[in-house]
Design brief:
With 449 residues, the protein is of the alpha+beta class. The chain is built from 17 helices and 11 strands.
């Protein structure tokens, strides 16, 4: 049985499906489930982390690994006979940046194995060739920084004067399952795969001791949910924007960047942005979705925004947040318009609050141990937020952590007089320097249309 380090079986199956999609872009694929074999399931099992959260059955990764080959053989047989039953997911809630709660569904380990195998071997090879270039969320080789680069380059290089910053309210909870299945059937003609996906959608949630299913949405946290969400938005939003709006209605320049259910659309003219927002609300309502009233805005933004607003006696252009970054109108040293970016205030506050709470728990530890842990936190922060133009913000963020560390060390004892010189020493030993880690977006940006 092949382990995760040997991916020949997965790559061959996925490659064959990908080639079939490209050969027949309009034809439905009617023979897919036979690609799900015991070696494919084994690859999916070994790709899961050993400390993965357990579902309602309480089976851990180590428990399932005992007698793995027999378990996977039986699982594969049940899948192909149609006897596999998707169990309910376990509901947990995590805190959101706005103070609310986001419900997550944790599937059983066996369900994760099947979802991983179907998503990686069947769904991703089919739809990666279908998705459009401005779609970035939950796709291979298309991360958040690629979306940020595309937005930066689009605003700077096109005649963009107005920005529609939109967010779909409760997207994962309001996906219409009937429409989703109809969208999947455009390309998937294998009824066994459709039935399997339907079982996951209708599995329901265990909330305490009670089983709940609203008949709408997909469980957040499920392995198959991201690709299903992208398929839904591909037909509801992407194709409509690309063919109807950018292809026929837009008269001026227009840019689109979407990351999951969060997207930004830029326009040259305000009347086009107003008309787009009106049409977008109608379009989403047809499929059971709606824009979030507090997170959807139309703002004046771009190379002419500052001058136009000053001429009308208004203040400087508004800012908008996208993927944790606050975007604002800035200018280069030569006076040329440039999109400014910095970590959003909400993200900074949330991270500092979490660091403060964790420092209280680690107050009894040694100074070097705590400083080493903080160095890992800062390194992760820099990996995402250290983009050109954020040097001052990064230094301020590190300085806040320095003060929090000093305050924590001094509170360990009434007689403790921890000095700044010790903080400097710990920083030099354990913390990375707050330097820029990403190139300018126009140097690495490449979008596939």
């Amino acid at each position: 049985m092949r382990r995760a380090q040997k991916r020949e079986s997965v790559s061959q199956a996925a490659t064959r499906i990908r080639q079939a999609v490209k050969r027949n872009p309009e034809e439905r694929l009617v023979a897919l489930l036979h690609h799900i074999t015991v070696p494919i399931l084994a690859e999916a099992f070994h790709s899961l982390k050993s400390d993965v959260a357990v579902g309602v059955d309480g089976v851990t990764w180590e428990m399932y690994a005992d007698g793995l080959e027999d378990r996977l053989t039986d699982l594969c047989d049940r899948i192909h006979r149609g006897a596999y039953r998707a169990p309910a997911v376990r509901r947990v809630e995590i805190a959101k940046a706005d103070g609310g709660k986001r419900p997550l569904g944790i599937a059983t380990l066996e369900d994760k194995i099947v979802q991983k195998a179907v998503a990686d071997t069947i769904l991703v090879p089919i739809y990666e060739s279908e998705f459009l270039g401005f779609s970035y969320g939950f796709r291979q080789g298309r991360g958040a920084h690629n979306a940020l680069d595309a937005l930066f380059v689009g605003i700077e290089q096109r005649k963009i004067g107005w920005i529609v910053d939109a967010d779909i309210r409760g997207f994962f909870d309001n996906v219409d399952r009937g429409w989703l299945i109809r969208f999947l059937e455009h390309r998937i003609g294998d009824k066994r795969v459709i039935r399997l996906i339907t079982k996951w959608l209708n599995a329901g949630v265990m909330d305490g001791d009670s089983w709940v299913d609203t008949g709408m949405g997909t469980p957040q946290g499920a392995i198959v949910s991201p690709i299903l969400a992208n398929v839904y938005l591909h037909y509801v939003f992407d194709l409509w924007v690309h063919k109807t709006w950018r292809g026929r209605k837009a008269e001026g320049d227009m840019i689109v960047v979407r990351y999951a259910d969060d997207f930004v659309v830029g326009f040259q003219h305000k009347w086009e942005a107003d008309r787009f927002l009106s049409d977008l609300r109608k379009r989403l309502a047809q499929f059971g979705l709606a824009l979030h009233p507090d997170k959807t805005r139309l703002i004046e933004f771009g190379r002419f925004a500052k001058v136009s607003r000053k001429r009308r006696g208004q203040r400087k252009p508004e800012t908008f947040d996208f993927l944790g970054m606050t975007h604002f109108c800035d200018q280069s040293l030569k006076g040329r318009f440039r999109v400014g970016r910095k970590p959003s205030r909400k993200r900074v506050r949330r991270t500092l609050r979490r660091i403060k709470d964790e420092l209280r728990k680690r107050m009894h530890m040694g100074a070097h141990t705590v400083a080493k842990w903080l160095g890992k936190v800062i390194n992760g922060w820099l990996n995402y937020y250290a983009v050109p133009g954020t040097a001052r913000t990064l230094r301020a963020f590190v300085d806040r952590i320095r003060r929090m560390l000093l305050r924590t060390m001094r509170r360990r004892s009434q007689k403790d007089r921890f000095e700044w010189s010790k903080i400097d020493l710990l920083q030099n030993i354990h913390w990375p320097k707050p330097t820029i880690r990403h190139p300018w977006p126009d140097q690495r940006f490449a979008v596939k249309t």
